[in-house]
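Quick question about two entries, pasted in order.
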Amino acid sequence: MKKLTILTNGIIKENPVLILVLGTCPALAVSTQASNAVGMGVAATAVLLCSNIFISMLRSVIPNKVRIPCYIVLIAGFVTLAQMIIEAYAYSLYQALGIYLPLIVVNCVILGRAEMFANKNTVLESALDAIGVGIGFTLVLLVIATIREVFGSGTWFGIELPWLIDNNISIMTMAPGGFVVFGALIALVNKITRGQAHKNKEFGCTGCPSADACGKTARKGGSGL
C-alpha cells in the first residue's frame, strides 16, 4: 500500500465511526460540546499513535498466544500517561471527559488497529495508519459535537451564537439527540457512497481480535454473536 493511501484510509474509506462503526460510546457520550470532542479525539489519537508504533516494533517479540493481553497492557500504559498529562494541564477537560478518558483502554478503534494493522506492518506504516484513523475519529466527533452543541445549546466552543442561544433544542444535548445525529451522518455517508463503503468492509469475525475465543462459529467465519 502506498503511504498516502494508508494515511487517508482511516479518514475516509475506513473511518472508525461512520464506516466501521467503532468507538461509538465515546463518540456519543462526549460529543455534547465541540471542545470535549476535540480533547477526546486528540487523546485517543495520541494513544493510538504510540500503541501502534510500539506494537509494530515488538510484533516479532510478543508471543502470538498472549498478544491481546500484551496490547492491552501497552495501551493502558499510554492511556494512563495521557490521563495524567490532561489532569495536570487541562483539568477542566479532564473533568468533562470523566470516565470516558480511562475507557480509551478498551476502545475498539485502538485495539482493532493494533490487531489488524500494527501487528502486520512496519513502524512507519503503523504510524501513518494511526494518524489517519485518529484524524478520522476526531473529525467525526467534532462534526457530531458541532451539530449537537449549536442546536442544543446555542453555542460553539462555548461561544454564544445569536438567536440560537435563546431558541435551542435541548434534546440535542441528550442521548436521543446524539443517536439521531449519529444515524443521520451514517445515512448521509451511505447515500453519498451509494452503499459501497459498507459493502466493501468485512464485518464478520475474520478481523476481530477476540475471534479465537468465540468457539467454532468464529473459526468457521460466522458472526460470532
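Here is the second entry:
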Amino acid sequence: MDLHGKAAFVNGTKRLGAAIAAALARGGADVAVTYRASRAEADAAAKEVEGLGRRSLSLEMDLGASESIVRAVGAAVSAFGRLDVLVNVASIYRKTPAGADPSRDWDENMSANARGAYLCALAAAPHMKRQGGGRIVNFADWLPQSRRPRYPGYPAYYVSKAAVVAMTESLALELAKDGILVNAIAPGPILPHEGITPEEDAEVCRNTPLGRWGGEESIVQAVLAILSCDFVTGEVLRVDGGRHLR
C-alpha cells in the first residue's frame, strides 16, 4: 500500500503508538491517534504528525465501550474523508498481584487487549469496504505466538494476546472478500519496562539471540513492511530478535 493520501487510525499512543503514527505520517498518511487517560501523549503524537505536514486528530476513546469506539472511528472518517489503515497497538501488560480478583484481571486484560481491538476492527471495516479495501494491524505477543506461557503471574495477559492471534486469523478470512488484509505483530523484547534492574536488563539481552532490545524502530519497520505487501493476510510476525528460538 502506498500511504500517500491515505488515512490511518492508531489505537493507543503510549510507548510504540506515537512512533508508528509518525512513520505513517512520513509515508504520506493523515493519522488519528487515541487516548483514554494519557491525553498529553496523544496530543504530542498528533502535533508531531502535523509537523510532518499531515492532518491529525487526538481522540478520546474507551476500549471498553463500543459506542466510544464507533464515535472515535467515525470522527476520523469525517475529518479525513476515508479510512485505509487501522493499527491496534493499545494494550495493558501487568502481573496479577497476589490475592487479586482473577475474574477482574481476566476481564480487564480481555477488554483492553482483545475485545477492544476486535471492536475497532468492526468499526473500521465498513469504511474500508466502501473504498475497496484496507489494512488492519493488530498487536499480539511473541509468547502466545510461540506457544510458550513462559512467565508465571500473567495468565490473563497471555490468554488475551492468544485471542489476538485467533482474532487476526479469523478476521483475515472474514474480510478478505472486501479487500481488507488483517495481520499482526508479535513483539518480543522491544523497550525495557519501567523499573527494570540492570540484572534484569542483562538477562533479557543474554536470552535474546541478537543480544539486545529491539527498540521502537524495529516495530515501525515491521508495521510498514506488513502494510507494503498486498498478498499477505492472516499472518502474525514475530519481532523478537530470535527470542522464540531459545
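Reply: Residues 7-245 form a domain with the Rossmann fold fold (CATH 3.40.50.720). Residues 102-130 form the longest helix (29 residues). Hope that helps.
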